[in-house]
Every structure is written in C-alpha cells, then in structure tokens.
Amino acid sequence: MKKDIKVIIAGGGIGGLSAALALLRQGFDVEVYEQAKELREVGAGIQISPNGSRALDALGIYENVKADSCNPEKKEFRLWNTGKSWLLFDLGDDAVEKYGYPYLTVYRPDLLKALVDGVEAIKPNAIHLDSKVHSFSQDKDSIKLKLENGQEISGDLLIGADGVRSAIRNQLWGPTNPNFSGMVAWRGVIPMKNLPEHLQKMVGSTWIGPGGHAVNYPLHRGEIMNFVGTIERKDWQVESWSTQGTAEECLNDFKGWHEDVQTMIRLSPQLFKWALMQRDPIPQWTQGRVTLVGDAAHATLPFLAQGAVQSIEDGVVLARCLDKYVHDLPLAFEKYESARIERTSKMVRGATANTGRFHSAELETEEGAEAYLQREWGSNPIADRYDWLYRYDVLTAEI
C-alpha cells in the first residue's frame, strides 16, 4: 500500500533529502522538486552532534558521512584577544560513551552527496532540478503542486522543505517578518595545508569576546578548516549566503582579535557575509495533506549548531509517523508535528538565548572571562543546555 502513496517534497536541501531518503526506506513513493539547476551545497561546514549522527545512522548513511568528515578531539573556548583556552567538552571517546555516537564536523557538500546517493540508490529519478515552486492546492483526497514553469504535479502528500523563504509555509500561514538580529556572519574555508602548523589541529575552537565570536573546526577528512565569524553591527542586513566580502572588511570587524583569528581571515580564499535574521517559532506546521520540515518550519540562529541536525531528525520522525499512521495520512502529519514542534521550538529559543553567552561584555578581560565561563559554561549549565538535545533518539521518540 505504501508504494501507492506519492509524497511530493518541495526543496532538495538537507531537510528535503533527509525526508526523501527516510520515506523511500519506508517504502513510500517520493518525488523531490528543487529550484536549483544543479544540486550542490555551499562550501561550508556544519556540526553534527551525537543526536544528528544517530539520525544519519537511521538513514543508512552515517558511515559514509563519517568517512568524509572529522571527529574533533575536543571543543574549546578561546578568549578573543589573548587566545587563552578553556575546555568546553570532549567530542571524542567521552561523547561516544555518553551519547552513543560522536560529534562530527561535516563539509556540507559531503553530507549532501551522501543524501543524494542514498535517494538515487533507491529511486534514481526522484530528484527534479530547475523546478521552482509556485503554489499548491489540496482537497480531501489529493494534493497538487504547481511550479513556476507551469508544470503541475499531483500526489497524496506535500512536504515543504523549501527553506527560510518557504513558498509552502507562506501559502499556509502568510509571510513571516524576520527581525534583523544585529549581527553579521562571515564564512570561509581554508586549505589546511596553508595554515600555520599550530592551527592544523583536530579541535573545534569557539573564540568569544565582547560583541562577537568566531568558530573554526576541521572538515573533509582534515583537508580544510572551516571559519565562521559573527560580529555585532547594524549596517548590513542582506540575508544571503552568496554575498562576497573582502578580507579587509572582515579584518576590520575583528580588529584587535587574536592573530590566529586574523590569520584564518587572511588565508581564506573567499569570504562571504550574511545578515543573521531572527524568527520566532511558528505555532503550526500542518494543514491537511501539507506539512513542513527543516528551516521552513523552524529557522534558527546558528548558536546551538542544530539547524541541519534538526532538519535530519524531522525527516526520520516524519517517515516513522507516515509508516505508523499510513491509513490516515492527515493524522500522520499531525502526529509528526506533535512529535517535533516542542523540541524544535525549544531549540530555536535556546539558540537565541546563547547569543549573549558568546558576546558578553564580561569577556573583555581574562579575569572577567574566567568568572563568566565558570558561571555560564560550567558542567551543570552545559548539561542543561545540551544533554536534552544530544540524548534524543529519532527511532524511539514518542510518536
């Protein structure tokens, strides 16, 4: 029966392809419609915490992703100007012992390739490119997706996985009005061999200072270093990952920061900047035969490193719900929303709350930073903020 149920997915990013792979593995028919002319992710890094590694294992691609990724030895804080370091938490054996899976740092194109390969191994022609979504319509028995090129696709269910500017979400609930967070982010990837030897470490570093922070961690089997710097400034409000900036502008934003930070900026072959926009969690995802996954449902600031991970979790839980409630498809979507919305809303709020923890004025000096880190980043506060995320199991979560 499941093979007779056609699920249409609008969007071929991490969330859409995770849902597609999970559904195909459950025996559903799936078609993915992606607006890009070629399927590729931006060249940047993402952090896959143990709950994300567990979800990748449920999708059958964990070993492939792990082989192309890095498993940092530890995660550390470093002070913005002196470079003094404090251990945040162990990401290697301790993470595996505590949570069952490691913390991986993953090159986005590597993750996308693993998802595409997984989908195409089950259904080779499931992904349709150059297919931008226009709108949809539904009745009690079916769904119809209309593309901007005029094509119409009929199916039984529609999943909106079309990102922060989701056309599906906007048709369901009207356009959202994100607020500028007051922060601009920079990103670059650096060939590891070009860095000074002391920066070629399998360590995730978070540089914290008043009004800004930066992170760097290894990717792609240790061949490249990912750099992301976030700074408080009001004069740039373009939410685009493809706007190129200059090293001079980025260095100016991080003037006075440690030489290691400035070295990574100078050695980045390209630097891109984008405004960080803040969105409140939306109160409903599902209407009849339509629901949302990933950024379309719960776009977040990046300060819990959970955006991609929660999108992957969505896909696995959604497929479980459709499998369990296959005789009542709208109910399956409602069960999926109920299973996921509280967790992802808590994640969005937690990421927003972390902003101040990275940018506090108390981080101006080593003395202030020492007291601040003991208070805000000791073992108990860390457990409160992260354990509930990392212990989650997509295969046993209540649906």
Automatic annotation (TrEMBL):
The lineage of its organism: Bacteria, Pseudomonadati, Pseudomonadota, Betaproteobacteria, Burkholderiales. Pfam families: FAD_binding_3. This is FAD-dependent monooxygenase. The keyword Membrane does not apply. Keywords: Monooxygenase, Oxidoreductase. InterPro entries: FAD-bd, FAD-dep_Monooxygenase_BioMet, FAD/NAD-bd_sf. It comes from the Bacteria. One of its GO terms (molecular function) is monooxygenase activity. Residues 5-349 form the FAD-binding domain.
